[in-house]
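User: I want to check something. If I give you two sequences, will you return the structure for each one separately, not as a complex?

Assistant: Yes, each is folded on its own. Here is the first sequence with its structure:
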Amino acid sequence: MTSPPAPHVEHGTLALGRQLGQGGQGSVHQVLNKKINRADSGGWDVVYKEYNSTVLPQLDATALELAVALLVEPGFGEGQWLCEKTAWPAAVVRRQGQTCGFLMRAVPDRFQFMLRSLAGSGTGTQRLANLEYLLNDDAYVAGIGLTISDRDRLALLADLAATLTRLHRIGITVGDLSPKNLLFATAPRPECFLIDCDAMMLRGRTVLPQAETPDWQLPAGEP
C-alpha cells in the first residue's frame, strides 16, 4: 500500500504570532490560524519552526518529509501517542517550493509553569518546564515555583525510560538527549514531553547533522 504524501503548508498561508524561541538551527513562532488533530476537543495548537538560512544547505528535506509522513503511514498505530509525548513534525512548510521549516504541536499547558523570581518581585513569567530546573537543589526548585516530590521524580524517570523504549521500538532514536529538550509535568501524573524532535533519527535518517548539547555528549569510548 502506498503511503499518503506528507502534509505540506505554504508559508504565506500562515498567520504568525510572536516568536517563542530562538536556537542555533532556527526560530519557533506561534501560529494563529492552524490546528492539528481536530477530533480532540477542536484540535491542538501548533507552532512553526523556521530554519536559519545558514543551515538550509545541510537540510535533508526528504528526511523531514519521511518524519511528517510517519504520522499518516498506513498501519502505523502510534501517531496519536507520538504527538501526545513529543513535538513531532506534523507538516512540512515551504516557501516558493523550497522547504523552510515545519509545523508541530505546541507544548501543552501542563508542561509549562509560572517562573517566580527568587527575589520575590513581579508576578512571574510563563516558561517551559525543562528538566534542567530539577537539577538544582530543593530550595531553588521551590523558590521558582515548582513543586515536585521524590516520588514524582522517580515516576518521571520511569515515564522517560518507557517513552524512549517505545520510540526506539518504532524506529526513532533520540540523539540529543539533554535536560533542555525534556519537559516534565507532575499533574495529573508525572510524565515527560520531548521537544526538538527534528534532531531525532528516524529509521537511520536525520533532518540535519546530529548535534549534541555541550557537556551532555557520550563519554569517550561509547558507541
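And separately, the second sequence with its own structure:
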Amino acid sequence: MNTPTITSMQEPFTRDRIVEALQAMQPDATIDDAIERLVFLAKIETGLAELDRSEGVSHEEAKRRFGL
C-alpha cells in the first residue's frame, strides 16, 4: 500500500498543524481515529501538491477512467 507520509508532502505538516488537527477531534477519539485523520489530511496535502505541479487528472479524464 502506498500511503503518503507527512514528510513526503510538498509543504509538510508542522507540529502546530498536527496539534490543531488533533484538538479539533472529539474528546473520545481513539489513537486510530487520530492516525486516520492525519493520514487523510496528508493525502489531501499530497493531492494539492500534485495539482500545483500540474500532475492532476481533469474531471473529464476521471469520468472516462471510471466509465462515466
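Because they were folded independently, the notes below concern the second chain alone. The two ends are 26 Å apart (CA to CA). Residues 1-10 have pLDDT under 50 and may be disordered.
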